[in-house]
Amino acid sequence: MLxxxxxxxxxxxxVLIDLKCRSRGWEGNGWDQCGRPIKVNMNYWNEDAVQRHExxxxxxxxxxxxTLEHEKLxxxxxxxxxxxxxxxxxxxxTILSALRYELPYENYVYFGDTAHCPYGxxxxxxxxxxxxxxxxxxxxQGVKLIVVAxxxxxxxxxxxxRATFETVHFVGVVPAVxxxxxxxxxxxxxxxxxxxxxxxIYLQQLIDEFxxxxxxxxxxxxxxxxxxxxxxxxxxxxxxxxxxxLQPILKEDIDVIVLGCTHFPALRxxxxxxxxxxxxxxxxxxAVARRTHYVLDAEGLIQPENSNHTHAGxxxxxxxxxxxVFSNVASKLLGYSVVAHQARC
Length: 345
What we know:
alpha/beta; Rossmann fold; six-stranded parallel beta sheet; six-stranded mixed beta sheet; single chain
């Protein structure tokens, strides 16, 4: 059974997840910032995939030595390409920080789709289309791999992205349910996410697979996304907003909170403070960074040793909304000056 409890003064919704059931999908209307409905074209990415399936690679025995050597050189050249990071807005910058810690000499191109943020209140078809558009923009920048640094986009669009852009490697974000289930001593965990993510079947599947016998409580916290997008990361008003948003799961006597949205690690100090450091807070940042490292290594795409290891790799930051606003927010989240550029995609 999926039981929902609504709060009169909050936009959040809490879901007590029964391990024997499956969450149902949900419907809704999507609007752009001007109040116009977004038209979703569900076919344009499929056409590309079909065309790629109609091309057949040559067999190794039929290739010349010149061709094989050229392909090897192509892999080396591609290893020097940047890593693309994509999010609905500023949340993915928390993943970018983990990536730059794990892979400091790689170059990065970050794209925040701030004109359409938040994704967590949109229907799946809109999220898929926006994710395809964002990925296409990063591919046009010549990236070798794309990290979908958004839980909502990963759950809704990752399979479509991999089918659409078959030659590109994708790494998605998964809510840290498995480590949370291992860490809890009370057998009770909370999951803070977007409204869409809390209702996703994928989250229920993760709980079924990795948290058997654990009571899991999920709450949608759209107001926390808004705080981070505005660069409001601390202070009395922020603390009160975070406390109210998380109250539905905190009152369930949990001892672990999963940050199931990449925006939320930016509020970790506040979350730890309002829980008096009595609740363990877990996010997916380091796990995503390690997974990215593994994929690059396995595919021979790590930045070559002799390329440039004297200082950190370069970073380009793009957004679909106001570049000045995003520059300020990104600089605050990352802790160093960032100049964002507006993308036309």
